[in-house]
Amino acid sequence: MANPFLSAVFVMALGLTGCALHAPKPPADNEVDPPPAAATSTTPGDIETANDALMKGRYAEAEALYTPLSQQGDTILRRQALTGLTLLYLSPENPDFNVNIAIDVMDQLNALLDQERDQQLLFATLKQLLENTVTLTRQQQLGVTQVAEIRRLKERIEGLETALERLRRISLQ
Hints:
By secondary structure, this protein is mostly helical. It has a domain at 4-24 and 39-130. The protein has helices spanning 4-17, 44-55, 59-69, 75-90, 99-112, 117-172. Helix 2 (44-55) packs antiparallel against helix 3, helix 4 (75-90) packs parallel to helix 6 and helix 5 (99-112) runs antiparallel to helix 6 (117-172). The longest helix is centred in the C-terminal third of the chain and has 56 residues, at 117-172.
């Protein structure tokens, strides 16, 4: 099952990336309209399918859908796909969890983001998620180390108690 915190961040992040739909920038005078999309290109519906797959923990499917979207010319779809990929790679339940790839994807996303307040909030949220994930990973690794140390000390205590019991028996004889 998906992480509830990740789900909340995901909903907020995708909402913020979609805010650009409401305030399009006027085209520059020398800007040429892009060529029509090929019949095999991805669609905004693909982003919804990818989002659904991510929320349901189908990470390989989500990654397969997000990856081509993250290379599209449509800035809004790219933002949403890069946001989804960042969340995908930061999800601890994902077998392909990878902080380094998430950082690379965030760098791509940062290059796309405008200096609008909502876009800054999106990036700050993703950055905080990344920092929290790194901290959590470190704490989990520390916990594993501490559990191993506790186990080793308990075994040593048991060995010492056994030796002490033998010494008592010897001294009573």
